[in-house]
Amino acid sequence: MLGSSKPPPGQGKIRLPKLQSTPTLENFQYMCEQAHANFPREVEQVWGLPGSNKMFSLGVKYERGVPHPVWTLWEDSGGTANLVWKQESSDYQLIDDMVSMASPANPSTSSSNLAAATPSQPGFTKTDWEPGATDAFQRQFGSSSTSQSGMSPFESQFGRAATSSQGLSALSPTGERVPGHGPVFVDKQAAPAGVAGFDGTIDKIPMSSLVDSISNDGLTGRLEVLGDESVGEIYFLNGVPMFAQVAGILGDNAVRELLTWRTGTFAFFPGDRTEIRNIHKKLNETIMEGIALLDKKKHLERLGLTPDAYLVKKHRNLSDTEIKLYLSKGEPADLNYQFEVYKSIGHKYSLSDLLRDRPMESADWVPLVFNFLTCDLIEIRPPDAVKVGALDFLEEAKIEVDAIYTSMLRPETGVLAYPGFLLFLQHEFYRFEAYGWPMSLILFEMNRKKDYDSTAKEGSLRSSVELLPPQAVTVAAKRIELVKRPLDVFGHYETLEFALLLPNTKVGSASYVANRILQTLTISPLSPQIDKKTLKLAFGIANLPADGETLYDLLSAVRSAKDKAVAGNFPIVISKSVKSS
Amino acid sequence: MTNDPVWGEGSDAQEQSGSQAPPIKIGELLVAAQLISQENLDDSMALAMKMHLPLGRIFAMNGYLTEEMLQTGIEICSLIREGKLTVESGVKALELIKFQGLALSDAVGRVSALPSVGGVHASQLGDILRESAAANSAQIETGIIQSLDAAIPLGQALIWTGVITPSLLKSALVGLQLIKEGKATRGQVLQALRGARLRRVHIYQPLKEINAIDKDAEPPESIADLLYLAGLLSEPEYLTAVEVHITEDKTIDEALLSCGLASPASLTATNELQAMINEEALSKEQAIHLLKKLEDVDWEIAQVLGALEDVPSEEEESLEWMDLLEITGVVHPEDMDDAKKKSLARREPVHSILLDGGAITQHTVQCANEIVGAVQQQLINVEQARILLSYCHENNVSVEDGLRRFNWIPVLV
What we know:
The structure holds two protein chains of two kinds.
Chain A lengths: L13 E2 L9 H13 L5 E6 L6 E7 L8 E7 L4 E8 L3 H11 L8 H7 L13 H11 L11 H12 L33 E4 L5 H10 L4 E6 L4 E7 L2 E7 L2 E2 H9 L5 E6 L12 H20 L7 E4 L6 H9 L6 H10 L6 H7 L4 H13 L3 E4 L1 H5 L10 H10 L1 E2 L4 E2 L1 H18 L3 E11 L8 H6 L1 E3 L2 H14 L5 E5 L3 E7 L3 H16 L12 E10 L6 H17 L4 E3 H6 L1
Parallel strand pairs in A: 1-2, 20-21
Antiparallel strand pairs in A: 2-3, 3-4, 4-5, 6-11, 7-8, 7-11, 8-9, 9-10, 12-13, 14-15, 16-17, 16-19, 16-20, 18-19
Helix pairs in contact in A: 7-8, 8-12, 9-10, 17-18
Chain B lengths: L12 H4 L9 H7 L5 H14 L3 H8 L4 H15 L5 H14 L3 H8 L12 H8 L5 H14 L3 H7 L5 H15 L5 H14 L4 H6 L13 H7 L5 H13 L4 H7 L5 H15 L5 H9 L8 H5 L1 H4 L10 H7 L5 H14 L3 H7 L5 H15 L5 H14 L3 H8 L7
């Protein structure tokens, strides 16, 4: 049936009826079952392509001592039969991919590429490394590491990689994977001596072209890409992408994610293999999706989208129905999910905030944000547009404002001085009077026990405390800054204490803040010898209107609460508790 | 002055030796690190010139700066000149020495984790969080700066600023430990960490799913877990100790000591209890029970073992849930008085009248009941009960959520 140069058929070969199109997964499964049932005979499936005199023959047989069936694909162009590939595998999907790669019926692949790169002598196993394929790649990208300086190819490759990229330094100079880096893969075979990989930057070569070329050239090995934020890798087997991962994303999604990368370096490590397979889609489909995704991402970036850019709602008071109507104008996507995400966009909400609250891969968030934009629901604002200080427009004149605030700080601690604190307290009280907004006050002490003595009783402990040194207060202030809101006011209270004013806050929430402050002050030493055991902390909390109607009421209540906290067995006391006891 | 630093314009040692000008002068460095004001520096320099005295002595006499601090400043200046530190990292190191009392080597080590100021050692935790997409580079860098300023580990800075959750930090630290011990690859940990974040589970679950670890494997436990479960460490304290243990290559005992979270005596006692658990001489629950009795005490092991007999249970104030409603301000006093009067007249429970009148909700009643139960089980004290009810009532959250947010009971994810 095939050309004369085809080796003589094996004894007892089972020939299945000729097909008029490329066999499918069902055909492969049937062939395999027949081969298994008729061990050790080979099962052969022949098919032709409409409008072409080209014929293909796929054989499968089980061999002794080999766990998986061995597949061979022959191509006959009318006179000469060539072995296209030979592969041991039980993965029908892989065989399907490999057959598709060799078949002209698949428009994205070219068998001529494979044929050109495949030695025609029978018995050649394509899973071995192919210098010809590398050469083809080198011609295309001109980035081969094939030694021209007397270095071995691997020395050349890794020598350069180590200098061009920190990430590649995870590989040892011999090209072996350093333990502890990357996934565990089996059946890794080192490339034959004299075989080189290649590397380069994806700034110049789009990822889609790179992946497509490796696939078309039928290479076997691992493509490692070092991006700005993460490392990704794709394993190829005879040009078929088998396994991909990037920052925890796996499979087809990982390939799609990698296709959106535009900066970084890559290196191809010939011979690295895996038997794990997590890529199942046709590569050309994934590439098309990746390119579409990249186009959208580029469009969003042109409009100023960065991780810190703000997603600002264009309409403040849209009803649910109106939002859904707007969204219906966009590209098809899960309407309810889009609606849910849109509703969650708050004031000063950046892309980072969105991805923190709802972790998504770029394949998910890019279409979402793109839809919001095209549906006229949001606009993108640069980080500075929202983040800048309210008085920044004053430019030079703002220095004077800052100077006034600085003059209100105690120089030794950098914390607002008591008179300054009272000034802010007074302002907040006016707001309470005018609008009835609640306000809470936390009064607290941070002292050091002079001699930590586990046998000391409450009374003696109280008298044996001393003030914290200013350095420790400065560190404490930095920690408090982390847990308080920007609009909360932290300052010295009288001479020895501290206070935190919490506008528009009720007692329960104020207690929560006090608890956070307590915990952040004790997790590690404020300075040497000032740690959890030696710190004496006590917090009193009061609130308007819960504790009265005047500032005097508030200050009296918070003082009583704090005094109870000093004497009590729990360091946080709310003023209502004082009244009850 | 043998090691006379360079203060003024055009008089630095490097210029004298004909090499490149240094990036910063010692005076500028001290001012930048807020060790001395520009005004005091200028005055001191003028006085030093006039009196022909070393500037360091003028500083010391005026109480501006100690000789030791000045010497440290000079050493940092040398490191900057040698290119071992950038100006920014030198300033930051000097601040850490001055304000946090760190030794020079420790301060230099810490600032070296700061990528943007010329650091050479990346933060292990920062890297793994960034690579698993749990935080971006800007957040990590801000976190590192905040952690240096506030003298807390990076993980805590990221938690307090809402970048990551405590459970994610826990998973990231376990992942780092597995990489260090060679029990999982970096790729596996990154993949599992991302899965853990997305699915809000402990990293062990995705690690088992990808066969990176044994199906029956359990997260390793240390004495920090024992102290945490006994309530002697809060969750932030526990995580801080574990982070220091893993990222600073200290033993867990060293980490607890350096964080001031345990004394040598308490560590000895806890280790002995842990040994007894390992030998099955004591159950974990018994050990936790013993530890709970000894809060805030520098114990001897004999004291610990005798704890059940020797240490009397602390007497808690008795608490009724109706009282709790009243004293936390959840029910206005006038409403409560009215309700009590109506209760007597109608012979109905007070809470029914409050519920009917809309003074309280069923959620608040439920919370109050649960909180009283928690007090009776000695999970929290009365003061905590008052705070918790206020919080749950105001924010409409369950008691369980409230306890978790306040970190008042151990929650091992």
